[in-house]
Amino acid sequence: MGTNRLHILAAFLMVMMLLGACSPKDREHLEIPAEVAILEFRVGDISGSILKDTIRLILPRGTKLEQLSPQITVTQGATVSPASGEMVNLRNQPVHYRVTLGNIYQDYCVIAVTDDVPRPHAHGRRIGYINWEDTEKTGGQERAWQWLQTAYPDSCDLLSLWDIQHASLNMDDYAVIWYHTRGVAGDGTLPFRAYDRELVEQMKAYTNGGGKLLLTGMAPRWLQTLGLIDNRYVPNNFYGHESVRLDASSGFKPVTKPELFASIPLTEGMVQLMGADCVFENNTSAWYLASWGGYNNSVSQWEEETGGIAIATDIVDGGTATRVVMAEFPVTDKRAAQVISIHSGTYDWGNHEANSCRGAIEQLTRNTLDYLRNAK
Amino acid sequence: MKKNILITTILLCSLASCTGKNEPAPSPVIDNDSTDTYLSTKERGLYRTFFKPQIAWVGDVMPFYDESSETFHIFYLQDWRPAAGIIHPVWDVETKDFATYRNNREAIPLGKNYEQDVTIGTGGAIRAQDGKYHFFYTGEMADNKDCMQAIMHATSDNLVSWTKDKLFGYMRATEGYSPNDFRDACTFYDPDARIYRMAVSTLFRGSNAIAHYTSSDLQTWTPAPEPLIKDAPHFMECSDFFKMGNRWYMTYSSINAPRCVYYRYKDGDLNNPYGWSDPQPLDGHCYYAAKTAADKQGRRFLCGWLQTRAGTHDSSDWGGALVVHQIGLDGAGPNLICSVPEGVFNKYSKAVQPIEQKKEYTTLEQGVYRMDAAAGRAFVQFNRLRSPMRITCQLKRVSNNGIFGFTFAASSDEHKAHHLRFILEPDNNNKSDLAHDSEEKGQMNLFNIHRIRDDREYQITLCIEKSVAVMYINGKVAFSCRIYDMENNPWQIFCESGQIEISDLQMTTY
């Protein structure tokens, strides 16, 4: 056999050896699976939307994004890291997951946000009253609580903003939460803690869940803070911390919702809330409808723009200007909470025993609380 | 010879006594007024440490560090009060240590009543690569309905004389941003991307945002594809951006009630508007409009105003006195801490003898006050506090839960007393607050101190000038308060719940 033939034979043998090295048995170990993927990514009842390598979760407001334990379903035989059920922090940051099967992997970026979708659910019958811990005790906050306990014995609780902030209360127990405050300044600024981010999150979760609110004194500031009404239409007439004494009783005029004024005597169509010669702070948080107020002095325009119901009005500035001083903000597709707010400075608990019209304040409050508790 | 040696020895001894090396420390100041009748002090004029000009007050602060002169130029909005028609030109005052100030002068005056900068708002200075100084500021013209606020430009060769850039005109909001809320430009150099960036406080399609522009020459500005930040929980005034470690930080002042200076941080670059951490406050609710500047050593200082309070003593809740904190990383970060600038701390160097007036449920042994509030409010009251004063002490929380702190304007009229109150209650959902309150005025300031709630010992530094009191705790937390009539009235350390110990109490003035 010549040299060329030997070379050909060697090459043939080498090729056969190579082909023999890739036996069918060996090919099995190199086979690439059709898919390595996350099939479902779920937190509670919410499944994330999976688009290519990004998973997006929209969770109810109040969900603690920093303590989530997602349940993850992956391709059969694959593993995922972080593991299914492992706690992760998705607040303000994405978390990266890797699904692995053999020596093949697929990476995902998971993003979570909270929404403002109303998710009303059943609440109990109790009334929560937010206490005055961060303000002075004057302004009648403590007096209002004393009355509430006699009017609703065994049905009301004193709630601290701190406890609400730290979610140490079962907010679902409360049909209504009543916040009455004189604020920390005459411009209606609320106590500092009432604006705390975590507290606001908890209150938004409560209202998104269908919890109702009664806001009085300077507390209507919360309409804006809790996002209950459009920022463009918040109350525009704040003043207070005064020392006012009236020559004659004063109050406001009911416009609608007669059930809220049941058993309250009217004087020339007016509900009298503050008697003559009683000194009060006149803490006011109204909507001024005329001129600079921007509503053309029209209650109907106010209702159309704010989405509220004007329950009562008063007239100021020598009869030239109308103000909305009691309002209801009903449940809508964007607001799960029913809210009633009283904005008149004559609704004042500060000097209650000296107020000859204190019975009207008590009856109005009782009617309003019952209205909210009994509303569906 | 012996006589000469003797004379020389005598002379040498005299010389030694004149060098002061062997001199005893100067005797502390002793003030023997032990009365406690409430006194109201009318404040006038200049603040020397927490700078306030002789006439007018400090508005929004725009600090700038000039490397060539190693001097901080504290640009600020001059708040004249009453300010009819004069809102508010940019003024300047210089300092090297935040303890002494000089060369207070106007930098950028208001424009004419037909010009965009008829009213001036916040901005900031930057030095270009060519050495020229640039100042971008807000021009506001209420009558310009299509563009009420815009960014304007001035230049200087020396930080003293500024020339408005008429060719620049004014830079208005671009697509998506609000033309009537477009202010407080912060211009900074990004060394990673090697470009200048401008951050502008605004709205982006209705959401709270910081607009983002870039430039290579500080003249032509191009809008970036995305804002620097959007969908934020607050409208962010007076923003400031800087790098610390590997992270970008921003500080801003929230115009939403209650006002506060916050910081946020992120990893990654500035082209993504998301990924910023949750806002964390840097001080309580009386400190506002603070921006930062860093010196050659990389020490960064947060410069803002502590508000006055409308009422008996002052006429406005906006603007006041300059208060400066040194800011830095808490360990390796990412959180920030606030501490007293070294120059401020060292300025108070003349010892004052604390003199007790009375005490209750408190013992004093070997320089340690022990207070136990089991039977009632424990306190020790000292003679009238004179301004200026620095109080330092070591405070130990003995009991798990405690409410304690300092009372100023402590007099026979308890209604008028002001309390700086630590509220540390691990058993109450870890309540951990610093509060400033009085029976007369209610709560005036509040700051959550969860950062130090697990500490049991607190190194307290209180720097006081007239009605400004800035408290620093463990070199991490700052709490700035406006306390009228603190000056010239007795003061206390108190404990109204739990037990505490106070040691190493020192008072110094200058």
- At CATH level 2, the architecture of the largest domain in chain B is 5 Propeller
How can the largest sheet of chain A be summarized?
12 strands, mixed
| Portion of residues within helices of chain A | 10-25%
- Secondary structure class of chain A reads alpha+beta
Q: Indicate the CATH architecture of the largest domain in chain A.
A: 3-Layer(aba) Sandwich
Number of helical elements of chain B: 2
For this entry, what is the oligomeric state of its chains? heterodimer
Measured as a percent range, the helix fraction of chain B is: under 10%
Largest sheet of chain B: 8 strands, antiparallel
The H/E string of chain A reads HHEEEEEEEEEHEHEHEHEEEEEEEHEEEH
Largest interface pair: A-B, 21 and 24 residues
Q: Report, as a whole number of angstroms, the end-to-end distance of chain B.
A: 49 Å
CATH topology group of the largest domain in chain A: Rossmann fold
Broad CATH class of the largest domain in chain A? Alpha Beta
Number of helices of chain A: 8
Percentage of residues in strands of chain A? 25-35%
